[in-house]
């Protein structure tokens, strides 16, 4: 029997919530780039009411830990922590890139996925995943050892390790940087998953729950990948 897990994600333009109970999913999802703070809690209330449970009935709270929008990731983890504190629930952070790999499998049964989120500033958040026989995903590192990274698309070509088979694209990065990403040493298949979804985060969180990989709410942390951002100051404000 699966754990009772509430999952939420606001790391991209998409805002989503999912509740998994006894392998049944209750979901809400909406593209709402500027309304995450208005949409997310009503979505939580809706799935809890639909399932007929309260937060106190759950085992854990999962969240999209990033990468993604700085603001979106912060909103998601902040709301998740607030809910977890109130109900004394442990938390499970899930990679948004891995969640898109899971979504691609859910929709198209693709077992090899290359995920790229447009990170702005002429960069992408990158992850390459292969599905294992037990349903978990193995991240394939680029040649400098990073499994997930932020990188200019033109530089990724030089670092990517060639892999066999057809790899399905996921994420907004493919549309934003079509030319440089077309040169990757991979056989690519066009996909239609653009954003992470909470229902896929809930599925991946089950694996982490069974392995004991949850933390107390105060220990939950985001994954930004881009740790330093240089801001150009306005004249007179140096």
UniProtKB/TrEMBL annotation:
GO terms, molecular function: transferase activity
Protein name: tRNA threonylcarbamoyladenosine biosynthesis protein TsaB
Subcellular location: Cytoplasm
Gene3D superfamilies linked to this entry: 3.30.420.40
Keyword annotations from UniProtKB, A to Z: Cytoplasm, Transferase, tRNA processing
NCBIfam families xref list: T6A_YeaZ
Cell wall biogenesis/degradation in keyword set: no
Span of domain Gcp-like: 30-228
CC terms in the record's Gene Ontology section: cytosol
Source species of the chain: Vibrio algicola
């Amino acid at each position: 029997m699966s754990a009772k897990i509430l999952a939420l994600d606001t790391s991209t333009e998409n805002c989503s919530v999912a509740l998994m109970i006894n392998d049944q999913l209750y979901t809400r999802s909406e593209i709402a780039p500027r309304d995450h703070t208005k949409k997310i809690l009503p979505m939580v209330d809706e799935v809890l009411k639909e399932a007929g449970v309260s937060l106190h009935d759950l085992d854990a709270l999962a969240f999209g830990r990033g990468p993604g929008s700085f603001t979106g990731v912060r909103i998601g983890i902040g709301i998740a922590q607030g809910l977890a504190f109130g109900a004394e629930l442990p938390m499970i952070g899930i990679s948004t890139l891995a969640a898109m790999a899971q979504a691609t499998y859910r929709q198209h049964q693709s077992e090899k996925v290359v995920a790229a989120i447009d990170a702005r500033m002429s960069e992408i958040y990158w992850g390459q995943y292969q599905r294992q026989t037990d349903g978990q995903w193995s991240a394939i590192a680029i040649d400098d050892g990073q499994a997930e990274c932020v990188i200019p698309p033109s530089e990724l070509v030089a670092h990517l390790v060639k892999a066999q088979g057809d790899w399905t694209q996921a994420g907004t990065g493919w549309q934003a940087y079509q030319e440089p990403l077309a040169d990757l040493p991979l056989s690519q298949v066009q996909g239609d998953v653009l954003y992470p979804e909470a229902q896929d985060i809930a599925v991946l969180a089950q694996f982490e729950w069974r392995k004991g990989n949850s933390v107390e709410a105060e220990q939950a942390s985001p994954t930004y990948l881009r740790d330093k951002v240089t801001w150009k100051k306005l004249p007179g404000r140096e």
